[in-house]
Records
---
Amino acid sequence: DTAVSQTPKYLVTQMGNDKSIKCEQNLGHDTMYWYKQDSKKFLKIMFSYNNKELIINETVPNRFSPKSPDKAHLNLHINSLELGDSAVYFCASSQEYRAGGIGELFFGEGSRLTVL
Amino acid sequence: SQQGEEDPQALSIQEGENATMNCSYKTSINNLQWYRQNSGRGLVHLILIRSNEREKHSGRLRVTLDTSKKSSSLLITASRAADTASYFCATAISGNTPLVFGKGTRLSVIA
């Protein structure tokens, strides 16, 4: 079984459309994340979410909204897509914070979004 | 904001040689982690070193951490073609602040 799975793997859409990317983890982790990787491979945190708190990165436009129906799922909805949203979006999960900082992250395989 | 900076940006070596990648960061950390990303795939965790540790080994991997210099290095010994990938360092700061990743080092191991 895949630990962190996200769908779709590829998504091609027109500017102005609304799209969603789904993520599921079967590791029993309490914390899930969305990262964006640009064309230069730079990986940037967008959101982290656990049972208790949604942490929003202030640099993320409000067109991006995470939704978590339960602790095993964290979906990413994007409104009014723009050309600059083209990137690979990675979902990840980790165990809840322990003393010593965030531990190992488990990543999905990524969802490549292309906005035309 | 970006925390880690890997150096070099790209590295090309022959199979069997050792590969060393460096990471520098800006603020105090709780731990530092290294990840590998094969082309078109997700990131895979390699090793975690805590702020009170100086060196850690895992198979052919050796990681060092110098908190006074705010730097870490990843050494891959006896490299193989399968080690070809991008390698990222990531820092855990305080509390449950998400990991912050560097820009990565692209390693090419030529058979």
Note: The longest strand of chain A covers residues 87-94.
---
Amino acid sequence: GQQLNQSPQSMFIQEGEDVSMNCTSSSIFNTWLWYKQDPGEGPVLLIALYKAGELTSNGRLTAQFGITRKDSFLNISASIPSDVGIYFCAGQVTNAGKSTFGDGTTLTVKP
Amino acid sequence: GAVVSQHPSWVICKSGTSVKIECRSLDFQATTMFWYRQFPKQSLMLMATSNEGSKATYEQGVEKDKFLINHASLTLSTLTVTSAHPEDSSFYICSARALPRDETQYFGPGTRLLVL
């Protein structure tokens, strides 16, 4: 089946620093999604990308849908302690809505 | 908008019993709901896709007789873990698609199941 390679696996940064994480795949996706999951809770949608090349922002978060349709990145600017959590990328091929999830990036922000 | 709830939020049961988990879309109609399983420090694993009024589609390796899914209405899907065993202990998360408003999935808060 399809797999997503998400990196880095974990990040330890200082408050105020910028963060970048990405997902790559050997196959094409038509939708890329980025979620954040806090401990013991379900994932919360951060950004959805529907077109190749699309660059979308949500506050301090910016995500891009790669031109090749095989990758996406998420940037967080000026990190704050509440950014701590696990960030997942997810790709969808069809409108059926089935998502393939990356393994997640665990972000730790030191005050 | 696009709120999904799950009940219960956590459950402890004895081995051999069955447990039912509910997933509700509170402010939208969800023709499709998805059930995921997540082990500690791991990603979400799709178990099945649930369409209102029809049989669920299970992913490879997921026992449909073990994990019974019912999507009886446009706002409710249930997952029943039958004859639960300790290895079924996990975090179960549902999601729903708010079509035709958008194609993205909105996740519930999850249900933590512990089988003793």
Note: Chain B touches chain A at residues 4, 6, 32, 34, 42-44, 46, 49, 60, 91, 93, 95, 97, 102-110, 112 (CB under 8 Å).
